[in-house]
Design brief:
Strand order of the largest sheet: 3-2-1-4-5-6
CATH topology of the largest domain: Rossmann fold
Bound molecules: nicotinamide-adenine-dinucleotide
Radius of gyration: 20 Å
Number of strands: 9
Structural class: alpha/beta
Number of domains: 2
CATH superfamily of the largest domain: NAD(P)-binding Rossmann-like Domain
Distance between the termini: 62 Å
CATH architecture of the largest domain: 3-Layer(aba) Sandwich
Order of helices and strands: EHEHEHEHEHEEHEHEHHHHHHH
Number of helices: 14
Strand content: 5-15%
CATH class of the largest domain: Alpha Beta
Helix content: 40-55%
């Protein structure tokens, strides 16, 4: 039996490599992005067809994946004027793989359930590099039956697939993961900038961190590859990281649990977003802090 056609909306930094892995695994993909150039990248790929609109994707595909910047855009696409949410049919499956807001996702799941349409949130971690090699970490929220149905699709794009709870739970875990990641990046950058000012070679400092208890994802994968070489091109925008932090901070506030550090972390990331050029990569936080002296 041939694999079901997958509709994929949002062909950006992450969407493109994720679609390539779906095609490699034998899924026919119909894609759509507001930016026509994004779709043109697949001109030579058999198995890929470009759609004229998001509505067309929703009409043609039993499974729909969204890989969009944020919940505002997802909600607009689903429920805004001419939105596709109301036209989805029972038996279709909607999967939101972007880093959306868990509260919005829970609402979207409830609204779609009334139409007999299952919703799964399945945000990813690992960045562009792991999107390319198909080894993303995918945190999944939703009803077991729908999650089971989506598993072969997730297996084509990711390695660690964890069903963390009901709809919205995946997006909650993703936002919290990025809070932990963003705070680790901030701590590493502040430490490196101070050490550098004292006259210590930051390459050596990072080397020591990586052999000591200060090691984290930033010291291991970002400091040498994107920061000290001033490339600042990891492929994950600073504005998206700030958005994730805001989601996490709002989520913690809603839970009424301790969150003073998250609030402070968000404040620095927001300042960096204003201080750096539009479209800056999240690794440019290092540049921002260096220039604060
Ligand atoms: P991106 O900005 O590169 O891509 C988003 C794409 O969505 C763009 O091509 C844009 O044209 C398209 N788009 C926007 N509105 C649209 C609409 N209404 N209809 C159709 N297309 C539309 O972003 P990205 O880096 O690929 O990130 C996508 C999501 O994944 C975000 O939620 C982000 O937080 C998350 N994420 C990103 C990374 C990363 O390393 N870049 C890692 C993990 C998670």
């Amino acid at each position: 039996m041939s694999a079901a056609k997958v509709g994929f909306i949002g062909l950006g930094m992450m969407g493109v490599p994720m679609v390539r892995n779906l095609l490699r695994a034998g899924f026919p993909v119909q894609g759509f992005d507001l930016d026509a150039a994004a779709m043109a990248q697949f001109a030579d790929d058999t198995g890929f067809s470009a759609a004229a609109s998001a509505g067309q994707v929703a009409q043609d595909c039993p499974v729909l994946i969204l890989m969009l910047p944020d919940s505002r855009i997802v909600d607009q696409l689903l429920w805004g004027e001419g939105g596709l949410g109301a036209h989805l049919q029972p038996g279709q499956l909607l999967i939101d793989m972007g880093s959306s807001d868990p509260v919005h996702s829970r609402d979207n799941a409830a609204r779609l359930a009334e139409q007999g349409v299952p919703f799964v949130d399945a945000p990813v971690s690992g960045g562009v590099k792991r999107a390319r090699d198909g080894s993303l970490s995918i945190m999944i929220g939703g009803e077991a039956v729908a999650v089971e149905q989506a598993m072969p699709i997730f297996q084509a794009m990711g390695k660690t697939l964890v069903h963390v709870g009901a709809a919205g739970a995946g997006h909650a875990v993703k936002a919290l993961n990025n809070y932990v990641s963003a705070s680790g990046l901030l701590a590493a950058c502040e430490a490196l900038v101070a050490a550098e000012k004292f006259g210590i070679d930051p390459h050596l400092v990072n080397q020591v961190f990586n052999a000591s208890t200060g090691k984290n994802n930033t010291t291991e994968h970002k400091v040498e590859n994107f920061m000290l070489n001033e490339a600042f091109n990891s492929g994950f925008a600073l504005a998206l990281m700030r958005k994730d932090l805001q989601t996490a901070q709002g989520f913690i506030e809603r839970m009424g649990t301790a969150g003073g550090f998250a609030a402070q972390c968000l404040q620095t990331w927001s300042q960096a977003e204003v201080g750096l050029e539009r479209g800056a990569d999240h690794t440019a936080m290092f540049k921002f802090l260096r220039e604060q002296q």
